[in-house]
Write a structure and sequence with these properties.
heterodimer; A: mainly alpha; MetI-like fold; B: mainly alpha; two-stranded antiparallel sheet; 13 helices; 1% strand; flat
């Protein structure tokens, strides 16, 4: 056998580094002992306790709702921003728009969180809205930074799409709005789905920005996890982590499976075309 | 990028174009740009025991308009060594973490880009998957591994290699490890995207001309992947400077990072003007890195 190259060894070690801590987390979620690091036999009791914890369950529900609405709004705004940047050529404000799309990708969360909170406080003083902070303010904050990620994902797809399809539709008399919905949208649909999923996970995961802009009414899952984790390790959090890792792995596997299948279909279609020709 | 050539679209869009542009532009201006102006404004006001806890800058008292601006918060930041060393500490820890990410991530991305085509997607998903789970939980994983009665110390004690646990939790080492672990996928992704586009024939030409592989790497591959290195490094460095969760969970009392200091000024001391001044100075320090990232990203968007 050929000696593996240095980079291959680094790739394998890097993947081990990424996955080993998560596997350890999963392993200890089945530990009977309260001490997370001492093995005391197999047990599923932490999962039962997790599902009895009303605080965690209601936080999960709050987070899922915020993530759903944030991702949906972010897909609308982000797609619009991407479309404007890629298809509209030059216009006044383009530099401003593209800066405001790339900056949230790297902006430290404490700065974003603080600035949005101060905005909401000011707005409440000036126009009386939002009267109190909670799910709506978190939704606005998450929509804003998630739409930047969606714009990046969608614009890279828009750039790959063949313009001639859209032009052909319009030359045949389709109005631009119809062309967008019947030609452009279906072609970029995979990117919209990817952007939505990315926005959804980003919103579910955010602790810092939500902590700033939330009020006493809305507690998201990361806030509950954080206040528990600050006090030290807890097997219930391991059980929760295991379920999150399981869900994400399953979703990723399904996405991979469908991507592979559509790729295989595309190849087959191309082969058949080649045979006919 | 050519604009749509179709005459009909142009004609249709002309009156409506502005509206389509306005929606994302207004949203981002209102909820991303404008807030920075407010932070600047509050950083120039004085703390007060009130709700919200700062004094109004514009005052309509006694029929005269008075404008009160104070640079006191900024002077206060400069005079107190706590803040200066927190900024310095953040920059240092972020720099070391970014360097470590680059040294680990570059070979990984390189191996991915050279892997057989049907493997590349699987490898990419494997690298990105952890970043889609939960940031908080991935940091938490290290608490159980690094603590005094954690996995590493227990194993070493059991093997008899050490007599007493090594202190790893609540140190700067743990913070750097946590940052590298959490941000590694964001380093690999742009590097991989860059390296897959690298023209293989250039490398072949170099080796045909007798260039040794190290030499080819240094003279051809490395300069051509500059864009990916900048993007990956900025994606790690900028958020790491303002990191709050990792120093809070893995750091110790001597870990001074500005994100944590800002959080404490805001939530524990309720000193909004000082927290705002801290944010403005941090933004000022990060302006050049953000501009670098933007330049790379907009070049990427044009291709």
């Amino acid at each position: 056998m050929r000696k593996p190259s240095f980079t291959t060894v680094m790739l394998i070690l890097g993947l081990v580094f990424l996955y080993l801590p998560m596997l350890i987390l999963v392993f200890y979620s089945f530990n009977a002992s309260r001490l997370v690091t001492v093995w005391a036999g197999f047990s599923g009791r932490w999962y039962i306790e997790l599902f009895r914890d009303q605080q965690i369950l209601s936080a999960v529900w709050t987070s899922l709702r915020i993530a759903f609405f944030s991702a949906s709004m972010a897909v609308c705004l982000g797609t619009l921003a991407a479309f404007v940047m890629v298809r509209f050529g030059r216009f006044r404000g383009k530099t401003a728009l593209s800066s405001m799309v790339t900056a949230p990708l790297v902006m430290p969360e404490v700065i974003t969180g603080l600035s949005l909170l101060l905005l909401f406080v000011h707005m409440a003083q000036l126009i009386g809205w939002p009267a109190d902070r909670g799910m709506v303010t978190i939704w606005i904050a998450h929509t804003t930074f998630c739409s930047a990620y969606v714009a990046v994902v969608v614009s890279s797809r828009l750039r790959e799409v063949d313009l001639s399809l859209e032009e052909a539709a319009m030359d045949l008399g389709a109005p631009p709005v119809k062309t967008f919905f019947q030609i452009t949208l279906p072609v970029i649909a995979p990117a919209l789905a990817a952007g939505w999923l990315l926005a959804f996970t980003l919103s579910l995961d955010d602790l810092v920005i939500a902590s700033f802009v939330s009020g006493p009414g809305a507690t998201t899952l990361p806030m509950v996890v954080f206040s528990s984790v600050r006090l030290g390790v807890s097997p219930k959090i391991n059980a929760l982590a295991t379920l999150i890792i399981l869900a994400v792995s399953l979703a990723t596997f399904l996405a991979w499976y469908f991507m592979r299948r559509s790729e295989a279909k595309r190849r087959q279609a191309m082969r058949m075309q080649a045979q006919e020709a | 990028m050519p604009a749509l050539t179709s005459q009909r679209l142009r004609r249709w869009l002309k009156p409506r174009r502005g509206w389509v542009i306005a929606v994302p532009l207004l949203w981002l201006t209102l909820f991303f740009l404008l807030p920075f102006g407010i932070v600047l404004k509050i950083s120039l006001s004085e703390a007060a025991i009130a709700i919200p806890p700062y004094s109004a800058m514009l005052d309509f008292g006694a029929e005269t308009l008075s404008l009160v601006v104070t640079f006191g918060n900024y002077l206060f930041l400069m005079s107190d060594s706590l803040y200066v060393s927190a900024y310095w500490g953040s920059l240092k820890i972020a720099f070391v973490s970014t360097l470590a990410c680059l040294l680990i991530g570059y070979p990984m991305a390189y191996a991915m880009a050279r892997a057989p085509a049907h493997w590349q997607l699987v490898l990419l998903l494997l690298v990105m998957l952890p970043s889609w789970t939960s940031f908080l939980i991935r940091v938490y994983a290290w608490m159980g591994i690094l603590s005094n009665n954690g996995l590493i110390n227990n194993t070493l004690l059991w093997l008899g290699l050490i007599d007493s646990p090594i202190r790893m939790m609540n140190t700067n080492f743990a913070v750097i490890l946590g940052i590298v672990y959490a941000y590694l996928p964001f380093m690999v992704l742009p590097l991989y995207a860059n390296l897959t586009r690298l023209d293989g024939s250039l490398l072949e030409a170099a080796s045909d001309l007798g260039s040794r592989s190290i030499n080819t790497f240094l003279k051809v591959t490395l300069p051509l992947s500059k864009g990916g290195i900048i993007a990956g490094s900025m994606l790690v460095f900028i958020p790491a400077v303002g990191e709050y969760v990792i120093p809070e969970l893995l750091g110790g009392p001597d870990t001074l990072m500005i994100g944590k200091v800002l959080w404490e000024e805001f939530f524990n001391n309720r000193d909004w003007p000082v927290a705002s001044a801290l944010a403005m100075v941090m933004l000022g320090l990060l302006l050049i890195p953000i501009a670098l990232f933007h330049r790379y990203q907009s070049r990427e968007l044009k291709e």
